[in-house]
């Protein structure tokens, strides 16, 4: 299609919309508007791909508004009474932004715009049902709900346009697969409608376009509304990304002490803060919420130190925090402050990838490798666009694999080598959910009609009739619908309504605890259930919103954690639910290729400096960063080891550890790891532990297993049997049991198997569901989410034909032991708790203790620990047999003095004598240990008798025991 210029694209719109454009100051269309408005104005389906902030929303909605205005003004046509257009986004926060952006257009053009999501009040919902808006902004889940309402179904009969924002986000998720069937259900109500998908970038536009419009291959008349056009504005050519691993300076040594981090991390913090200070507004993306919290707390510490030192408030670099587990009010507050210029920077996670409006962004920092090309383009694409500038970004890396990976991703981003969407094809729990949805829509429906509706959606176009029938029978057995086998009719049952409204979302149900600041009575965020169960307890400390909090109480019934703020800058970072972003195979292979080329150049006599300089010609980085990234490769080559590359696997080991160096990415390495662990474990007759990253797999093996065993298994495994081996390996895994429980809930099967049986464990659930579609789907999902079976089979075939070499190193190597930085541990080193230890030391010294003489039993004295002598003795009789007791432990004193004792008094007396023995032998150190919370004589003896280098270690052990007591107190009580 020839590119229109100037106002030509706007010429496709009517006079009212063009007048509104003039009022808004739109004189020249943006590039996506020039390309996309003509086909959209003609009513065609389209997938519009363009960087964030280039006017994609207006690109899609201006033709929609124009069509609504034209329909209203058409003489003789009856006015449309229902909803004419749906604008669907994956986030409620995006709904809020879209409402802000579209409301002006609606008011100017006389078009009513409303928003509908889970937080919409019942009053607003009733109002929308009685008087539907022209345009409804909603989420995939809310569409599920409104399709079943009697009044809303009538309103939906008028839908002529559906716009799906951030379509790439939905394409890779089950909620997106659910949405595709929801759109087919909508089509049964409204007839064919225009479909428009918006995204910054996707790797395979053709497949995402099919995801958007469906196939319709089972429509009886095969209408021609399934075609689409792709309008793509290249993102890679509009980005300028540099990869930087900062050198450590003298200033970083001082900063490391100030922040209680190592010098390398101090250099990262300094560099990022310097970039923020040089720019007007910077987004700092990180890959996990743990990193966001830890990094945010360091920035807050520096800002507070500046304020305390008298720095002009306008000169303080203000950086705040934004991620999905902060409360809605907190998120909105920081968004507004960033947009208004009160904040210089925002540390954020993927929550900021999806176009939430925070105003103009000058620059984007990515901390650590972004892991994927699509993620880098999505994030850096947020910068510079409002002035039609190239989007600028800096990736601050941590050396080694992290830097090489970032370099490969930055190069691939420039060449638009984006990863394909990982669409959930044939997810059976989604099929089950949507069959119930169709029955809810229509009361009763013929099974063939339901099958046709589901399979017209692209993710399910290959679903076979027998598979569909098995799902229906499972739903019938679980009483979620009735199947009339004589007529093949599906009807509502007593459980249909309750199930459907409890399962509007395909996102797995996982409990979250609300976190409340008891000093202000304000919610500050949430913690996931796994964190609360595994870590949280009264007295524990953690970081959230970049600040330190101490847990005072956990209310299990209300799922609430009450906390108080503390000034301590260290502590545990919340262990959020969420898997690591997987590094794709092509990215990891490019890292392997870089290693191989560097090794070949070094072997040919080139210097490390020359090799690094050569890299800067091909990758967007500097020579110092490249040299640091290659240091492990240089050491590896100098030691004479074979280098693991994109066409060589190197296996090494020592003692009970074997490492398989394989540069093939997370999913292939996970697949290899499960295969090798299962087959080697079978040979050894013992379990094999494993740990996976994109470049190596570490195994913990029995003493008689060596690297040669792994090489033999790799060279002899039949690629055609890979899937069968993996199913056997996965069958015993916690991952399958966890997934099976979630899938079973979506099938309504858990309740059926729990009835009358109490708690129903993973093993019993697995046995009960093994020959059902529930098990099939759980297995498919584990394979889909974590494994890469076809790619790994190709790899095994390459080993067999010799195109992929497998070699054994004689010892552990530089590359084999390098590994990537583990999560956020680099932000909280082991010795970063000096302030915590000082606090514990001072607290215990100020605690009160009863000193009680067991020799004469007359002397009893309550005092602070700090006032107890190094070797306590009784002032009455001179004995050193002094028990140190808690200040409220008068019952033990009474028990010791009692002439006749019951069992409880005997236990108390024995406990007092053990405490006195400790004090007599170890003096005041025993008094300190016994004064700690929940320690007791037995644990105090263990703490005292441990060999240590310094006193801080003694207090660390005291603190660990206090935490253990806090965690288990309710059990013992």
TrEMBL record:
Residues 271-429 form the Helicase C-terminal domain. Belongs to the Lhr helicase family. Lhr-Core subfamily. Residues 37-207 form the Helicase ATP-binding domain. PANTHER family: ATP-DEPENDENT HELICASE LHR-RELATED (PTHR47962:SF5), ATP-DEPENDENT HELICASE LHR-RELATED-RELATED (PTHR47962). One of its GO terms (molecular function) is DNA binding. This is DEAD/DEAH box helicase. InterPro entries: ATP-dep_Helicase, DEAD/DEAH_box_helicase_dom, DNA/RNA_helicase_DEAH_CS, Helicase_ATP-bd, Helicase_C-like, Lhr-like, Lhr-like_DEAD/DEAH_assoc, Lhr_WH_dom. Its EC number is 3.6.4.-. Keywords: ATP-binding, DNA damage, DNA repair, DNA-binding, Helicase, Hydrolase, Isomerase, Nucleotide-binding. It is an enzyme of class 3 (hydrolase). GO terms for biological process: DNA repair. It holds the Pfam family DEAD_assoc.
């Amino acid at each position: 299609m020839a590119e229109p210029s100037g106002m030509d694209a706007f010429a496709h719109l009517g006079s009212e919309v063009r007048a509104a454009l003039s009022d808004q100051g739109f004189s020249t269309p943006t590039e996506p508007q020039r390309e996309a408005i003509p086909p959209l104005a003609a009513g065609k389906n389209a997938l519009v791909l363009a960087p964030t902030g280039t006017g994609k929303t207006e690109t899609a909605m201006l033709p929609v508004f124009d069509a609504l205005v034209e329909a209203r003004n058409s003489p003789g046509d009856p006015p449309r009474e229902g909803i004419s257009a749906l604008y669907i986004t994956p986030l409620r926060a995006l709904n809020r932004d879209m409402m802000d952006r579209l409301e002006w257009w609606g008011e100017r053009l006389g078009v009513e715009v409303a928003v509908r999501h889970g937080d919409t009040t019942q009053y607003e919902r009733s109002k929308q049902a009685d008087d539907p808006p022209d345009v409804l902004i909603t989420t995939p889940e809310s569409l599920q709900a409104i399709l079943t309402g009697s009044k809303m179904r009538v309103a939906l009969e008028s839908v002529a346009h559906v716009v799906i924002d951030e379509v790439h986000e939905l394409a890779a998720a089950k909620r997106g697969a659910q949405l595709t069937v929801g759109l087919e259900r909508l089509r049964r109500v409204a007839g064919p409608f225009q479909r428009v998908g918006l995204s910054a970038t996707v790797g395979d536009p053709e497949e995402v376009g099919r995801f958007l419009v469906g196939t319709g291959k089972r429509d009886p008349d095969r209408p021609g509304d399934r075609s689409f056009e792709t309008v793509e504005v290249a993102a890679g050519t509009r980005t300028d990304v540099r990869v930087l691993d900062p050198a450590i300076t003298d200033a970083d040594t001082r900063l490391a002490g100030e922040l209680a981090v190592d010098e390398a991390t101090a250099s990262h913090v300094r560099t990022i803060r310097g970039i923020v200070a040089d720019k007007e507004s910077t987004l700092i993306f990180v890959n996990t919420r743990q990193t966001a919290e830890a990094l945010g707390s360091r920035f807050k510490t520096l800002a507070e130190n500046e304020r305390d030192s008298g720095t002009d408030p306008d000169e303080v670099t203000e950086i705040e925090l934004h991620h999905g587990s902060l409360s809605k009010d907190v998120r909105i507050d920081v968004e507004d402050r960033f947009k208004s210029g009160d904040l210089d920077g925002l540390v954020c996670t993927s929550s900021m990838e999806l176009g939430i409006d925070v105003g103009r962004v000058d620059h984007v920092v990515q901390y650590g490798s972004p892991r994927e090309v699509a993620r880098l383009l999505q994030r850096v694409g947020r910068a510079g666009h409002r002035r039609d500038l190239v989007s600028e970004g800096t990736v601050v890396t941590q050396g080694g694999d992290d830097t090489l990976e970032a370099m490969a991703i930055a190069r691939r981003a420039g060449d638009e080598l984006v990863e394909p969407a990982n669409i959930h094809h044939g997810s059976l729990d989604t099929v089950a959910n949507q069959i119930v949805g169709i029955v809810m829509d229509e009361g009763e429906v013929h099974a063939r009609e339901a099958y046709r509706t589901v399979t017209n959606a692209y993710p399910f176009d290959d679903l076979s009739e027998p598979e569909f029938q098995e799902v229906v029978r499972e739903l019938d057995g679980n009483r979620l619908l009735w199947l009339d086998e004589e007529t093949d009719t599906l009807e509502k049952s007593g459980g249909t309504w309750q199930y459907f409204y409890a399962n509007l979302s395909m996102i797995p149900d996982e409990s979250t605890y609300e976190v409340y600041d008891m000093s202000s009575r304000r919610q500050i965020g949430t913690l996931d259930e796994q964190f609360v169960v595994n870590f949280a307890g009264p007295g524990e400390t953690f970081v959230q919103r970049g600040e330190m909090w101490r847990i005072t109480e956990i209310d299990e019934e209300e799922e609430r954690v009450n906390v108080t703020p503390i000034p301590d800058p260290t502590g545990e970072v919340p262990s959020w639910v969420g898997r690591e972003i997987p590094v794709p195979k092509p990215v990891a292979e490019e890292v392997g290729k870089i290693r191989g080329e560097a090794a070949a150049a070094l072997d040919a006599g080139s210097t490390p400096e020359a090799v690094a300089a050569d890299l800067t010609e091909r990758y967007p980085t500097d020579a110092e960063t490249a040299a640091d990234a290659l240091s492990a490769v240089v050491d590896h080559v100098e030691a004479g080891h074979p280098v693991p590359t994109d066409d060589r696997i190197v296996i090494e080991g020592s003692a009970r550890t074997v490492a398989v160096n394989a540069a093939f990415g997370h999913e292939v390495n996970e697949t290899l790891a499960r295969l090798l662990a299962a087959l080697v474990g079978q040979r050894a007759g013992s379990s094999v532990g494993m740990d996976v990253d994109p470049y190596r797999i570490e195994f913990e093996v029995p003493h008689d297993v060596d690297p040669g065993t792994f090489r033999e298994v790799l060279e002899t495994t039949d690629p055609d049997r890979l899937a069968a081996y993996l199913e056997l390996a996965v069958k015993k895994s916690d991952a399958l049991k966890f997934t099976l429980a979630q899938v079973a809930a979506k099938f309504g099967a858990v309740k059926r198997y729990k009835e009358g049986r109490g708690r129903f464990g993973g093993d019993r659930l697995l046995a009960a569901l093994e020959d059902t579609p529930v098990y099939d789907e759980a297995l498919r999902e584990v394979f889909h989410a974590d494994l890469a079976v076809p790619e790994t089979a190709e790899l095994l075939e390459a080993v067999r034909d010799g195109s992929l070499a497998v070699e054994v190193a004689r010892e552990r190597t530089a590359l084999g032991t390098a590994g990537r930085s583990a999560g956020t541990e680099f932000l909280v080193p082991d010795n970063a708790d000096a302030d915590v230890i000082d606090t514990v030391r001072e607290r215990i010294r100020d605690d009160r203790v009863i000193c009680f003489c067991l020799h004469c039993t007359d002397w009893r004295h309550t005092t602070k620990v700090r006032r107890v002598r190094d070797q306590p003795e009784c002032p009455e009789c001179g004995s050193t047999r002094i028990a140190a007791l808690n200040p409220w432990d008068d019952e033990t004193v009474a028990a010791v003095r009692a002439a006749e004792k019951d069992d409880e008094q005997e236990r108390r007396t024995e406990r007092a004598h053990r405490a006195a023995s400790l004090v007599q032998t170890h003096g005041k150190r025993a008094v300190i240990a016994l004064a700690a919370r929940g320690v007791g004589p037995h644990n105090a003896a263990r703490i005292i008798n441990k060999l240590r280098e310094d006193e801080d270690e003694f207090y660390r052990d005291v603190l660990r025991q206090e935490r253990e007591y806090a965690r288990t107190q309710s059990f013992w009580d």
